Each structure stands twice: as C-alpha cells, then as structure tokens.
Amino acid sequence: MDYRRLSRFARTASDAGRAGLSELGTRLRVRTRHAALRARYGPGAPEPYATVSVDPAAVEYLLTPRFYDEWLGRRGTYVVGGDWDRRYRSPSSTYPSTTALGFEAPTLARFENYTLFRSIRAHFTEGTPWRETDIYRYRAGRPRYGTGAEVLEDLRATDDLYEAVERDGYRRQSALGEDGPGDAPPAFDEVRVDIGRDGAVIFDDGRHRLSVAKLLDLPQIPVRVVARHPRWQRLRTEVARAADPSALSDAARRHLDHPDLAEFRPL
C-alpha cells in the first residue's frame, strides 16, 4: 500500500469534509436569520438576495469600514441598529473602505472623496495616466498590493470594465454567467449597498462598478442590500401591510417612490 498516497487522500478528504461542514453551517445561519426576519417583519421582511434598481448618482456616501465581510457576514441580508447611518466623517480623501482607516465603528464618508473614485474619474475624464493617480501612489507603496507593475495591471482592468459597460451597457451578474458562493445566486455579487433610517442608499462594496456607473451617468443599476436600519425596515413592513395609501403614515407616503419599496407598488 502507498501510505503517502493514502495520507494525501485522507488529508484531501478531511479538508473537503471541513469545507462542506462550513458551507452547511453558513447556509443554516442564513436560513435561521431570515426566518427570524420573516417572523418579525412579516410581508416586509427582506429576501436574502433580492436586488433593487438605484440611480448611481443618488449614492452619495460610503460606509467605512463596510458591513460586508468586515462587520457582518458575506451571505444574505441584515437589519442593523445603531447610529451607523448618522456618523459622518469628512476626510479630504478616503482609502480604503476598511478597518485600516482606524475608525472604531462604521462611519459615513462622501463617495466623491474616495481615493479610488477620484482616481478613476481623473483617469477617464481628465486623461490622467494610472501611474499619476492617487490610487496608484497609495498602492504602489504598500507590499500587500504587489509590485508597481501588478498594481498597474490591476488598475488597467478598470479600462476593460469601463469600455465593456460603455459598449454593451451595464449587465447583471446573471447575464455575465457569474455564480455566488455555495447556494447563493448570481445576485450575491451585485454592487452592495446599505439603507439608512431615512432611506439613504449608502455604498458598501463593488466600488469599481459603481464608479464606472457614475462616470457614465447610467440611470439605474441593480444592487443588493446588505443591511437596513430597523427604522427603515419597519417602514417597509408598514408599506407592505397597507391595504390603501390612506392608511400609511406621512413618512411612508413620502417614500413611496423609493426603489426599496418598488416590490410593494402598486398598493
């Protein structure tokens, strides 16, 4: 018997088994969380991977550090309380959307000040070479991003994205043949946003696509909501349960044209 081959097989099987158990655990947590959301919010409860269509120009702020994969898990959607949607910072530039900025809690910053967006805008609207952008200078000086050539290659991929969207229009992940992890659908990897208590759509992840969509003045793109503030979620439930617009509160009526309420129209 080849014990070395058997040992390798055993290790491979063990790794696959652990990965399978991890995936099953993730699926169970997502399903349990969303069962709890349905029990609490009824017909207004968010679906794990539902998308809404938003105007890129209406996304004015980003959350840093982001909820997706940093403060929350990657799968499904959440309802998150607190002041994360009212905690503002005004740095002259922002990079990156990560805990590396040193913020102790999720904080809002203007998307137009985001270093990557400013660099993409300078490249496409002013003709600034990638090597002369702030994002190149930031990344080229940090080993985690690789060599200068590797940084440049990564940035040039944005050229391909821009040209593809300009030529073919903005395409959903399902149309691109992309799959989500595990049992997650393609919508898993759409641009990710959060929604504050007053309905503000806040950027969370998918920065290159949102930047390109803004620069090309696209009227709408599909997004996946990672987190909603409880006050906004309660308003969703109010609209979902209303039999007639006259039964709605003033706040709910003011937001009837909000993209996150589109699934409940017409009333």
Please give the alpha-carbon distance between the first and last residues.
71 Å
Low-confidence stretches: 1-19, 97-101
Total number of strands = 7
Structural class: alpha/beta
> Roughly what is the average pLDDT, rounded to an integer?
85
Radius of gyration, CA atoms, in whole angstroms? 21 Å
Q: What is the count of helical runs?
A: 8
Q: Share of helix among residues?
A: 40-55%
Identify the overall geometry.
Answer: globular
User: How many domains would you count in the coordinates?
Assistant: 1
Helix/strand order, N-terminal first = HEEHEEHHHEEHEHH
What features would you describe in this structure?
The protein has helices at 3-41, 67-71, 115-125, 134-140, 148-168, 207-215, 230-241, 250-254, and strands at 51-54, 61-64, 78-79, 107-110, 191-195, 201-205, 221-228. It has 267 residues and is α/β, with parallel strands linked by helices. The chain has one domain. β5 and β6 (201-205) form a beta hairpin. It starts with a helix and ends in a 13-residue tail after the last helix. Mean pLDDT is 85; it is low at 1-19 and 97-101.
Explain briefly what this protein structure is.
It is built from 8 helices and 7 strands. The chain has helices spanning 3-41, 67-71, 115-125, 134-140, 148-168, 207-215, 230-241, 250-254, and strands at 51-54, 61-64, 78-79, 107-110, 191-195, 201-205, 221-228. Strands 1, 2, 3, 4, 5, 6 and 7 form a 7-stranded mixed sheet that branches.
Spell out the blueprint of helices and strands.
Blueprint lengths: L2 H39 L9 E4 L6 E4 L2 H5 L6 E2 L27 E4 L4 H11 L8 H7 L7 H21 L22 E5 L5 E5 L1 H9 L5 E8 L1 H12 L8 H5 L13
Parallel strand pairs: 2-6, 3-7, 5-7
Antiparallel strand pairs: 1-7, 2-4, 5-6
